[in-house]
Amino acid sequence: MPFPHLSIVIPMFNEEAVLPLLADRLRPLADAMVADGVCAAYEIVAVDDGSTDATPVLLQRLRRTWPEVRVLRLRANAGHQAAISAGLARARGDYVVTLDADLQDPPEVIREMLTIARTEGVDVVYGVRTDRTTDSGFKRWSARTFYRAQRALSSVDTPLDAGDYRLMSRATVEAVNALPEHHRVLRFVVPALGFPSATVGYRRAERAAGESKYPLARMLKLSVDSVTGFSLTPLRFATWLGLIGGLAALAILVFALGSRLAGHTLPGWTSTVVIVSAVGAVQLLALGILGEYVGRMYAAMQGRPTYFVAHDSLGEPEQAPQDR
Ligand code: UDP
Ligand code: MG
Questions:
Q1: What is the C-alpha separation between 62 and 42, in angstroms, rounded?
Q2: Where in the sequence is the domain holding 257, given as residue range(s)?
Q3: Which intervals hold domain Glycosyltransferase 2-like (predicted)?
Q4: Does residue 304 contact residue 189 with C-beta atoms inside 8 Å?
């Protein structure tokens, strides 16, 4: 097998403080991979996600001394996931790694990921955080809850505690790029594509410099995107409410009619109660039915595969009878 070309996609938003540290650490590693024949060549796709600090200036300066650096600048801040998507759409490598700029994902692992992909013949290698003692207690608790809830709500088998540090083959990247979905959360979309995968554990380090670009509001948005992107459970809520409401309306109807027959009612009360509860139940049920169709349209629009062909013998030579 010829040596592959590698793309390293790095989203960055206002990362002037870490950029020099990242370059100093990543360049020797990447150059060594080429020197050792782990890959034939590499490109760094630095996605500048609309930074307002010196990041673009530093990137241009870096490019003068490090020709493998490609700078993709987004006109405005689009967010971490969108920045990675932009990088994936333009990366040219046979394998593509996505990496955070802040050195929380140790770049040494890239070499291991590539080796695993090539020796085990898998398309995706997930970096799995085995140790996040450097993250704050709240971050760890929220991440833990997030991954477990996601797994419980979605039917996709996602590796636990895998963030966006992963290596993908060209075929995987093409499949991701072909998805029309907005607000996609790549760490769950990639497993949903069903490519053969492996994992590699790593220790999540502390941010090398600067501050987290993920305030609580962004974390919440990521959670909402993850749940709505992978689960129709919230949508089905209306159906269940409609069913429960319908049963309740029926009970109220029986009660109202009973009271009427027993003669304990004011004139007009029975008909009012019956009409109000019946209309309420019908509306909720209709909403639920609508929800089911909306859910189907949503799934169709997401365009994710519903099955994965591993092999098709069409066009292969026929087996001799004795081989059967
Ligand atoms: N990032 C980005 N756009 C954003 C927010 C973050 O490109 O709007 C990048 C950021 O520069 C970093 C990566 O995404 O390279 C992860 O962000 P951060 O380290 O702030 O998140 P945390 O590790 O705190 O969850
Ligand atoms: Mg970080």
A1: 16
A2: 232-302
A3: 7-173
A4: yes
Shared domain for 96 and 134, answered yes or no, is yes
Give the number of whichever ligand sits closest to the CA of residue 19: 1
Residue 324 lies in a domain: no
List per-block mean pLDDT (blocks of 10 residues) for the chain, which spans 324 residues. Answer: 90 96 97 95 97 96 96 95 95 97 95 96 94 79 83 80 93 94 87 94 90 86 87 81 82 85 82 82 84 89 83 81 61
Q: Looking at the structure, do residues 93 and 183 belong to the same domain, yes or no?
A: yes
- pLDDT tens string 70-110: 999 999 999 999 999 999 999 999 999 999 999 999 999 99
- Cα-Cα-Cα-Cα torsion 199, 172, 226, 88, nearest 10 degrees, comes to 110
25 and 102 within one domain: yes
Q: Which two tokens stand for residue 87?
A: 């990088």
Cα separation of 132 and 165, whole Å? 14
Whether ligand 1 lies within 6 angstroms of the CB of 142 is answered as no
The per-residue pLDDT for 323 is 59
Look at residue 220 and tell me if it is in a domain.
no
Give the pLDDT of residue 309. Answer: 80
For the chain, where are the alpha helices, taking DSSP H only? 19-35, 55-65, 80-90, 109-120, 137-153, 170-178, 186-192, 216-230, 233-262, 269-302
77 lines ligand 1 (CB under 6 A): yes
**12: helix, coil or strand?**
strand
Position 52 scores a pLDDT of 96
State the Cα–Cα distance between residues 233 and 153, nearest whole angstrom. 7
How many domains would you assign to the chain? 2
Looking at residue 324, what is its pLDDT? Answer: 53
How many angstroms is it from 213 CA to the middle of ligand 1? 5
Residue 117 backbone zone (phi > 0: left; psi -120 to 50: alpha; other: beta): alpha
Say if 152 falls within a structural domain: yes
User: 323 in a domain, yes or no?
Assistant: no
